[in-house]
Design brief:
globular; eight-stranded parallel β-barrel; about 400 residues; four-stranded antiparallel β-sheet; binds flavin mononucleotide; binds iron/sulfur cluster
Length: about 400
């Protein structure tokens, strides 16, 4: 099959596809980035570098398991690079020398204006294509860096400006989700001269309290800390922020790099449809390795061929118009559930959930173990179809409420 053209232009830089590694241990050195490029990643955001050298805890990771599924979410307690600045700059240089057509984003973090400016200058000299300002690590041991900066619009603006002062490269401001309104720091970064937004970094979290040791995991000599949560659990939260940024008038035409729980081409496309023109991944790579990008490339190519999209750009933001405030949703009709008895396994879960968590609209027939809808009680909430393990409750009759005009609707 002929592969679709997945190339994009992001912040004025040509990329062979929209799939980038996000800044983290997956992009820690030359060998790793080289392997990722050989596997098909279009770009990498190198592990955040700075004058600060991290002294890390051990262990530093813990994943959340639930109902036999591992990595529902992933918590890390890692800060920025453990290697010195000189080593990291050499690695960046070597990557660009050997992979001139791939995109290298240098993630930087300073502690004051002077450091941001210096870092911007040295990563440009090393050959980076784009700079990403890390305004968002939630577990820095110094409060003059990371999330504490990202929550302050003044600091975000000041450090974006300082970064632009040191380099002519496009600058991305990486946002923290540990904030109610991301638009404020995002606008401040653009006012400071940033050219695009990357979102999201990890979410402050506590997972897995050990009920014997009375601490959360991972345990570091009996203690733990609030720190960053990533992986599939955070995707819905990331999508919310991406959509809010895409809808913001003050950020019109500002390129967005979408991050948070992306594992598959469908995940990536959801971010694109909500306004991201580029996507970044860490946790799924930590779990499965770089080769997941092969499926992302072929899946997105198939989708574009099937739907007749010629470029990724055409798809950016297509779903944004369909995310509206709750007051703008239609409330004129009820869609009743329809039971497909050929597939029903008689488990009774629809009955229990509707009775205990819904509107007591299902009667249970004990003899043949089948549910029966009592339509006069049903409000069309579809809790029943959400709990059905056999996927046999579908959308049935559409009833318009009293005094509401009948018309065709999109279900
Ligand atoms: C172990 C680990 C280390 C990370 N280190 C950095 C970092 O140095 N700089 C940064 O901007 N983000 C860092 N992140 C955040 C990721 O780049 C990304 O924003 C976040 O994990 C959400 O994406 P994901 O769900 O695909 O992992 C790190 C994440 C993890 C899991
Ligand atoms: S749609 Fe809601 S109210 Fe109706 S049967 Fe299902 S769970 Fe009960
Ligand atoms: S939950 Fe589904 S499978 Fe179970 S009884 Fe209801 S309709 Fe049948």
């Amino acid at each position: 099959m002929k592969k679709a053209d997945l190339s994009i232009e992001f912040c004025g830089v040509n990329c062979e596809n929209p799939f980038f590694l996000s800044s983290s241990p997956v992009s820690n050195n030359y060998e790793m980035c080289a392997k990722a490029f050989d596997n098909g990643w279009g770009g990498v955001v190198f592990k955040t570098i700075g004058f600060f050298i991290a002294n890390e805890v051990s262990p530093r990771f813990c994943n959340l398991n639930k109902e036999g599924i591992s990595f529902i979410g992933f918590k890390n307690m890692e800060q920025i690079a453990e290697h010195g600045l000189e080593y990291n700059l050499e690695q960046i240089k070597k990557i660009k020398e050997n992979y001139p057509d791939k995109v290298l984003v240098a993630s930087i973090m300073g502690q004051n204006e002077e450091e941001w400016t210096k870092l911007a200058k040295v990563v440009e000299q090393a050959g980076a294509d784009i700079i990403e300002c890390n305004f968002s690590c939630p577990q820095m041991t110094s409060h003059s860096m990371g999330v504490d900066v990202g929550q302050s619009k003044n600091l975000v603006k000041m450090y974006s400006k300082a970064t632009k002062k040191g380099s002519k490269l496009p600058v991305l401001a990486k946002m923290t989700p540990n904030i109610g309104n991301m638009k404020t720091p995002a606008i401040a970064s653009i006012e400071g001269g940033a050219n695009g937004i990357a979102a999201i970094n990890t979410i402050k979290s506590i997972i897995n309290i050990d009920l014997n040791k009375l601490s959360a995991l991972p345990i570091i000599n009996g203690k733990s800390s609030i720190s960053g949560y990533s992986g599939k659990a955070i995707k819905p939260i990331a999508l919310r922020f991406i959509c809010e940024l895409a809808k913001c008038n003050e950020l019109k035409n500002v390129p967005i790099s979408g991050i948070g729980g992306i594992e598959t081409w469908e995940d990536a496309l959801e971010f694109i449809m909500l306004g991201a023109s580029n996507v970044q991944v860490t946790t799924a790579v930590m779990q499965y390795g770089y080769r997941i990008v092969e499926d992302m490339i072929s899946g997105l190519s198939f989708y574009m061929e099937e739907k007749g999209f010629k470029t990724v750009k055409e798809m950016v933001g297509l779903a944004v118009k369909n995310i509206v405030p709750p007051e703008n949703l239609e409330r004129d009709y009820i869609i009743y559930p329809e039971f497909n008895f050929h597939r029903c396994v008689g488990c009774g879960r629809c009955y229990i959930s509707c009775y205990d968590g819904g509107h007591q609209a299902i009667k249970w027939n004990k003899e043949d173990r089948t549910p029966q809808l009592e339509i006069e009680n049903c409000v069309g909430c579809h809790l029943c179809s959400n709990v059905c393990p056999a996927n046999c409750i579908e959308f049935g009759e559409v009833k318009f409420k009293d005094n509401c005009r009948k018309r065709d609707i999109v279900i």
